[in-house]
Design goal:
The complex is a heterotrimer of chains A (321), B (557) and C (341). Helices cover 76% and strands 0% of the residues of chain A. Chain A has helices at 7-39, 43-48, 54-64, 70-82, 96-131, 136-150, 153-167, 180-187, 189-215, 218-225, 230-253, 256-259, 262-267, 273-282, 286-314. The two termini of chain A are 19 Å apart. Chain B is 36% helix and 26% strand. Chain B has 21 helices and 20 strands. In chain B, the strands form four sheets. A six-stranded mixed sheet of chain B has the order 6-7-8-3-9-10, sandwiched between helices. The two termini of chain B are 31 Å apart. Chain C is mainly α. In chain C, α2 (23-44) packs across α4 (128-164) and α2 crosses α12 (306-337). The chains are: A mainly alpha (321), B alpha/beta (557), C mainly alpha (341). Chains in contact: A-B, A-C, B-C. Chains A and C meet through α1, α6, α7, α12 and α13 of A and α5, α6, α10, α11 and α12 of C.
Chain lengths: 321, 557, 341
């Protein structure tokens, strides 16, 4: 399988992809800039606060460079991004870079276990559901997942927190600590459990459809014609093919874990990036929102590239162009 | 001597939800002897594939079997799942029609080859790999050791089919079921695969159940022939007898309706329905000669079409699909264009109509340069009928809408009622009922849809019609009807045809002049009669030799 | 002559026939239809128009649970007996009688607060049932409108990109890449930070950020269909590009778009709920399922579960019925289109 990777075309491909990322990145920067400049409130007024005098606002404006023509401001913005100077939060005056450094680990401590467990659980469940397709069990499972999907995530968290934390006392209702181990074993389990519960229904349905698509293919008929049992067909033949859309799916979900599930972080008072962005939105803290948006965009593009490279490993038909 | 496999009164139906089950096979019986080849022949919908699949129980979940299938002393319809699994691949093996989709795309070919060896013969991985390599060599695969690690998409169609055959042979089965194994392949590759199958059957002393719709192929390879229609057996017997003295009217019709390659081409092809009704028993008169002094309508000089493919980091590569094709087409005549897949013949047709922009060359219609003509004017004079009748009509348009649309675009007819009237007249001319006007394409068969496509072209009163494999997707009997229709229209309206096809028999029937193409170039170009009886080029000779001729009586020594 | 056109069964007619045979689908359509009627009635003000009136006691339990036992909320004991007479030292004493007469002239309305309501009351005493109905109207309206906006944008852009390819396609792909590089929630937050609250803005935000899925799908469909023979044939008879895109291809793609619209509606309803919960959605003077859930969280700790239950029940019923109806719709539309393959 490693034969699929040969040096020169691979390097050419990566270079071409990096080259193609530039216009997209520029587009993201442009989008964020235009959004906040032309639709957002006046930063000088926000920073100045409700009681600022006109002179104070004017001086803030000059400090921020807002009296310059818009293309100049765009250029300053781009320079800031390239030099990794994200400024300071307007609300707390904390450097945004430090904000990233401190909040990201908390988010990842919760989100990575969720992603890993989600995928690991969904595959066997989907195989099971694909095996019983067409039967009454299948129909029942589909209806149950539909109902489960119709209830908002909010309800699950509210009830879950109330039931497991408050009433039964199995987990702490909220909280976070400085130790990774404590976080993983004491504070993370309840949110992870709830997120898994909610994520199970849609993942199962999605993966079930992937498996059913593959089971209907001609090569499965050939495998049966050779006398292979259904089990081997599922695990050796179908799973390998179904991995392709599954990989796509994981690749799409991966960038999301950096913002984390802000709901979980809000409910359980976890000091993660998602909650930070939410606070920033409520406080009109533009630097934080802008910085997070742009850097998560960069991360997304990097993850896309990685996923595409991974495709080649899983699907030999892929020709990286 | 007891036969190897005996099918008795087999019935297969498919449950369709709440509707009554559809009977695909209604009580058929035939035997397969050891070391013999039995061919199941029939048109689409005859139930031949269903019969074969029901032997090994590879039917979809909603199928119901009744009857008996006796093999090795037991009834396979009563066998349990585990018993059938032990049988499949070991004693009864299958080769399917489309090798590309029948092989797992993400697993190397060698692994798939080893599977039956390790499962049934309990070989170790190394033993299995050695045997797999030997099998690939046996089926004529070049560089078998390297190919073991190849993936399906890296092999050509013919090579993929060889892999499928090797997989089927792995455990030395007693019966090999081949379901249209050569239908998707080019005619020269088809010849190779047929010879391979015959040789393997002789060497391994196994039986072959060969399913096909092509009597020519069947005649060359079978010992016994079973003719099926609508889920029933019409006739069965030794191949010599079926070809020389068929008893059943349908068999006779099938034999007679093929456009053959010997003798002068008839004026009309026989049609199965006329045959069965007993109408058409007199031999067909040969075709009247066309006027050789007809004015030249279409003149093409050095027409070329290239595609640009991306290569490397920023480069482009040119792929020449059509390289310098020249010909002259007279009014009322037909030019046949023959070639295998990849020869560029379809691209030629599309380029003539400027559906693809030509990269070079000139096209003159009636003296006027077509490349200078505006697109709308061009469309009125040149039209095209596509290959796939199921894809060339918009499924959301009624037949009436489909026919009226071109007239509306070009402003033919003063108002809507007049256009609808014309549309109905054209429907009648192509042999369809007026009630078809309000119906939708899915209610019609392939042959009827092609007639609608022809009618659509005629609404614009074109002078040249390009037929891109227009009858290739149709059954033999329907094909004959459409070809007769095309002939009649040509005589009546003075149309000129560019008839593109890979089927030499059909091309011979309808063409006056023939162009043979390979890799975008014209290999040979001459009168139809001359090219088919005395070809000068090597490639043309190979092409002619590869066409299955059916059964021929052995020459007495 | 031009005879009466015998009406033949088109694709939609066949799909409707198949849909009718699916019992679960029909039941769910009935439920959805009932909800839509309720929403229409609520929008016209016939029901739940007065949801803001505080007609019950604070957190009144639902009728089937029974009224709360009246607890003594006063810590200290109230002395009984008449007040001590202070008229000799009270400077205001002579004016009392005059004031009492004056006061008697004003009519005061005795608001009798109900002890129980059909589905209970929230903290302010508002009828939970009325809130649930009104909330349904707002949440479903926002979800549907946003889905329509997103579908329109996605379909138009996807058609142009898939059909033409080339430069236009590249430009639209660039736009798509820009929008999908930013995770959805982040994009919504960014828009919300800038645009603020309000029903119109929520519709706009969700619509402007949610078009990418449909764009991808419609583009793939148009790419697939643009090389099909029937489109080539349309080109061969001289149909214009616009005609080929919207008269020929679009009707063959409309079933995909319809199913996506339904899926988007469900997704946007759930998104609106979360947005309103966070205070970024509907304004304060409106109610939606999200605002009800926001209140419900603190109420739950006091043991008042009815608002949570009402919001969840209405939402679960509607969304489940809608989802199952969409599944049935997709099954009904699917088989016939196979004839195209």
């Amino acid at each position: 399988m490693l034969r699929a990777y040969t040096a020169a075309p691979m390097a050419a491909y990566i270079l071409r992809r990096l080259w193609q990322m530039v216009p997209t990145l520029l587009g993201v920067v442009l989008l964020v800039f235009v959004l906040f400049k032309f639709f957002g409130g006046d930063p000088a007024e926000i920073l100045g606060g409700l009681n600022a005098s006109p002179e104070q606002i004017a001086s803030i404006r000059q400090q921020l460079g807002l009296d310059q023509p818009w293309w100049m401001q765009l250029w300053i913005f781009i320079q800031q991004i390239l030099s990794f100077d994200w400024g300071r939060s307007w609300a707390t005056n904390e450097p945004v870079a430090q904000l990233f450094a401190t909040r990201l680990p908390a988010t990842l401590t919760v989100m990575l276990p969720i992603l890993v467990l989600d995928t690991l659980l969904a595959i066997p469940i989907a195989i099971f559901v694909a095996t019983v397709r067409g039967s009454l069990t299948d129909r029942v499972i589909m209806i149950v997942t539909t109902v489960a999907l119709s209830i908002s995530f909010l309800v699950y968290i509210i009830v879950g927190q109330y039931l497991f934390g408050f009433q039964l006392g199995w987990f702490p209702v909220q909280g976070w600590s400085d130790s990774l181990w404590t976080n993983l074993t004491v504070y993370a389990p309840l949110p992870v459990l709830l997120a898994l519960l909610v994520g199970l229904a849609p993942q199962t349905r999605l993966y079930r459809s992937f498996f059913l698509d593959e089971i209907g293919q001609d090569y499965v008929r050939t495998a049966r014609a050779k006398g292979l049992g259904e089990g081997i067909i599922l695990w050796r033949h179908v799973l390998r093919n179904a991995l392709i859309p599954i990989l796509t799916n994981i690749g799409l979900a991966l960038p999301g874990i950096f913002v984390g599930s802000f709901l979980i972080e809000v409910f359980f008072s976890i000091p993660g990036l998602g909650r930070e962005v939410l606070l920033a939105v409520n406080r009109s803290d533009y630097p934080v929102i802008q910085a997070v948006t742009i850097y998560v965009a960069v991360l997304t593009m990097a993850i896309n590239l990685l996923t595409d490279l991974l495709y080649k490993w899983v699907d030999p038909r892929v020709v990286l162009k | 001597m007891t036969p190897l496999l005996s099918i008795q009164e087999l019935q297969v139906g498919f449950r369709m939800g709440k509707l009554p089950p559809v009977q695909a096979v209604r009580g058929i019986s035939f035997d397969i002897d050891a070391h013999s080849t039995v061919a199941l022949v029939g048109e689409s919908g005859s139930g031949k594939s269903v019969t074969a699949m029901s032997i090994v129980d590879l039917l979809p979940d909603n199928a119901e079997r009744r009857g008996r299938i006796l093999y090795g002393g037991r009834d396979l319809t009563q066998a349990g799942a585990a018993e059938m699994r032990a049988l499949r691949g070991r004693e009864i093996a299958c080769v399917f029609q489309d090798p590309m989709s029948s092989l797992n795309p993400v697993l190397p070919v060698g692994l798939q080859l080893c599977e039956p060896l390790r499962l049934h013969l309990k070989m170790s991985p190394r033993q299995a790999r050695e045997r797999a390599e030997a099998l690939l060599a046996e089926v004529g695969m070049p560089e078998p050791k390297r190919r073991l690690d190849a993936y399906a998409h890296e092999l050509s169609g013919g090579q993929q089919q060889r892999v499928m055959i090797a997989m089927a042979l792995a455990c030395e089965p007693k019966l090999l079921i081949a379901d249209e194994p050569t239908t998707a392949l080019d005619v020269t590759i088809q010849r190779q695969i047929l010879e391979l199958l015959a040789a393997l059957k002789a060497r391994h002393r196994m039986s072959l159940l060969f399913i096909s719709h092509d009597l020519g192929v069947v005649g060359e390879i079978a010992d016994r022939v079973v003719v099926m229609r609508h889920g029933q057996v019409r006739e069965q017997g030794a191949v010599a007898q079926i070809f020389t003295a068929p008893q059943d009217a349908y068999t006779r019709a099938l034999l007679a309706c093929r456009p053959g390659l010997s003798g002068p081409p008839p004026a009309r092809l026989r049609v199965i329905d006329e045959f069965l009704a007993g109408d058409d028993l007199a031999p067909q008169p040969p075709r009247a000669a066309k006027d050789p002094r007809s004015p030249v309508l279409l003149e093409v000089r050095a027409l070329a079409k290239s595609f640009w493919l991306r290569q490397g980091l920023f480069g482009k590569r040119e792929f020449k699909a059509v390289r310098g094709v020249s010909f002259r087409l007279r009014r009322g005549h037909t030019l046949g264009v023959v070639g295998e897949s990849g020869s560029g013949k379809t691209t030629l047709g599309l380029t003539l109509l400027r559906l693809l922009e030509p990269s070079g060359g000139e096209v003159h219609l009636d003296g006027r340069d077509l490349l200078e003509t505006g697109p709308l004017a061009l469309r009125r004079r040149l039209q095209i009928v596509f290959q796939n009748p199921y894809a060339s009509l918009n499924p959301r348009f009624s037949i009436g809408q489909t026919l009226v649309e071109p007239m509306a675009i070009h402003g033919i007819g003063a108002h809507r009622a007049e256009r609808e009237q014309r549309a109905r007249e054209l429907l009648a001319k192509v042999g369809l009922d007026g009630s078809a006007f309000a119906k939708y394409p899915h209610e019609f068969s392939g042959g009827q849809r092609q007639r609608v496509a022809i009618a659509r072209c005629l609404t614009l009163q074109p002078e040249v019609l390009v037929l891109d494999e227009a009858v290739s997707a149709l059954d033999v009997s329907v094909q004959a009807q459409v070809l007769n229709l095309l002939r009649d229209l040509q005589d009546e309206l003075g149309l000129a045809y560019v008839f593109i096809s890979h089927d030499l028999g059909v091309v011979r029937f309808i063409s006056d002049e023939v162009l043979v193409m390979k890799d975008g170039e014209v290999v040979e170009q001459a009168d139809a009669a001359q090219i088919l009886s005395a070809p000068t080029q090597d490639y043309t000779r190979r092409l002619l030799a590869a066409v299955p001729r059916g059964w021929r009586a052995p020459l007495t020594p | 002559m031009s005879a009466v056109l015998e009406r033949s069964e088109g694709v939609w007619h066949a799909a409707w026939r198949r849909f009718r045979g699916d019992r679960l689908g029909m039941v769910c359509s009935g439920v959805v239809a009932a909800f839509l009627l309720m929403i229409a009635a609520s929008a016209l003000g016939w029901v739940a128009g007065d949801w803001q009136r505080e007609i019950g006691v604070s957190s009144a339990p639902p009728g089937f649970v029974g009224p709360r036992a009246v607890e003594s909320s006063i810590a200290t004991a109230v002395p009984r007996g008449p007040n001590a007479d202070l008229s000799d030292v009270d400077p205001l004493a002579p004016r009392y009688k005059e004031w009492d007469e004056r006061a008697a002239q004003f009519r005061s309305v005795e608001i009798h607060k109900l002890q129980t309501l059909p589905l209970g009351a929230d903290r302010l005493g508002r009828d939970v049932l009325a809130k649930a109905v009104k909330g349904t109207e707002i949440s479903v309206f926002v979800g549907l409108m946003a889905a329509l906006v997103a579908t329109f944008i996605g379909t138009l852009l996807g058609a142009l990109s898939g059909f033409f390819g080339g430069r236009a396609g590249d430009l639209l792909e660039w736009l798509y890449n820009v929008f999908t590089s930013i995770p959805g929630i982040l994009l919504i937050f960014a828009f919300a930070a800038v645009f603020g609250r309000g029903i119109g803005t929520v519709v706009l935000i969700l619509g402007l950020t949610g078009w990418t899925g449909i764009y991808r799908l419609v583009r793939a469909e148009f790419i697939k269909h643009a090389v099909r023979d029937y489109v080539r044939a349309a080109q061969a008879i001289g149909a214009s590009a616009m005609s080929r895109m919207f008269r020929h291809i679009l009707p063959n793609v409309s079933h995909v778009v319809l199913v996506q619209l339904s899926i988007l509606t469900v997704g946007f309803i759930k998104a609106e709920v979360i947005l309103s919960y966070l205070g970024l959605g509907v304004p304060v003077d409106q109610v939606s399922w999200g605002t009800m859930l926001a209140e419900a969280q603190s109420e739950l700790l006091l043991g008042h579960w009815w608002q949570l239950a009402a919001a969840t029940l209405f939402m679960a019923t509607f969304v489940t019925a809608f989802s199952l109806m969409t599944d049935a719709l997709r099954d009904a539309l699917d088989p016939k289109l196979r004839g195209l393959e």
